[in-house]
Design brief:
Number of helices: 8
Order of helices and strands: EEEEEEHEHHEEEHHHHEEHE
Bound molecules: ligand DP6
Strand content: 15-25%
Amino acid sequence: MKNEKKGFARAHTNIALIKYWGKANNELILPANDSISLTLDKFYSDTYVTFSEDLTENSFFLNQIPMPKKSMKRINHLIDFTKRQYNYSGFAKIQSYNHVPTSAGLASSASGMAALAGAVVSALDSTGDLTNISRIARLGSGSASRSIFGGVVHWHRGHDHESSFAEQIVSEKEIDLNMITVVVDRHQKKVKSTHGMAQTVATSPFYSTWVDEANRAIPEMITAVQNNDFTKIGELAEHSAAMMHATTLSANPAFTYFAPETIKAVRLVHQMRSTGIECYFTIDAGPNVKVLCRTQDITRVHNFLAHEFNEQQLVVARPGSGIKFTKN
Ligand code: DP6
C-alpha cells in the first residue's frame, strides 16, 4: 500500500478525584474547570492504526465490531486534526481492543481515546511528545487527556488548544491510593456524560459555584497528593463528587445518576469511617460507587463491602502507568 504508516498505543483508564463537569468550548473540548485524576492499573485499551494513501475514508473497529459512520464524528475530528498537524493526506484503519471488564462498570472512553491519540501520533511522528498527545486525546474525549500519564494527573483547563493539556503530579509508584468499584447496576439507562454536563451548564443555577469550587480545590488537591495525605485527598475527592451530583439535581429538568444501591454503598462508606476504617467515595456519570482506600485497608474495605454486595460486584484497582507504544 502507498505511503503506509503504522502505530500502536496502550492507555489505561482514569477516575477523576476533582471532576471535570462542563465545557467552556464544545468544539475543542476545553473544560470549564481544571480536574485531577488517578490512572488505574488493570483497565486499558490497545489501539492499532494503519494510515495509507490508498484508503478513501477512516474506519474504526472496537473489539472487531465496526463503528457506525454516525458515531465517527469525534474520531474523524481527532484524526483530521492530527493529519493537518503532520501534513499527511491518507486515511486510517483503526482496530481498538478494550481490556475493561464489562463487569467493572468503568468508562472506557478515556482509555480508548487516549490510546487512539497515541497510536495516531506514533504512526505519523515517532518522536511525538506526550503533551501533544494529551491535547489530541482531549479532542476525542475530555477525560482522555489525563490517561496519557500514570499516577495522579492534573488537566489544565487552558483557554485554547495549546494551553489545555494534562501533566503528571506524582507517579504510580509514589502514591498510596487504591479504588474499589462497587458495581451496583450494569443496566441502568444512561445520560451520557457529554449530554449530562451540557444540560447542567445550560440550566443549573449552581453551575458557576461548581466551577469556582472545583478550581479552588485544585491547589489543595495537588498539595495533598504531593504529601501523600490520604485523608485530605479522600475528603476533597468525596466533596467534589457530591458537588458534581448536586449540579445534576439542580439542572432543569433535574436528573440523577444515583440508583437506590448507590446510596446504600455511600452509607456503607460512612459506616466504615465511623468504625475506624478510613475510606471515601467518588461517583461518575453512572450509578457505580468507587471507594478510595490505602493499600493497608484494601482487604478490610473489600470484606466490609462484601457483606452487602457479592464478589462479582467488587473490582479492586491500583494506580496505573502512562501510555505505552509497545505491548510489553
Ligand atoms: C463524570 O470525558 O466522558 O467522568 O469530554 O464529553 O467526552 P466528554 O466527556 P467525558 O466526561 C467525564 C466526566 C466524568 C468526570 C471526569 O472524568 O472528570
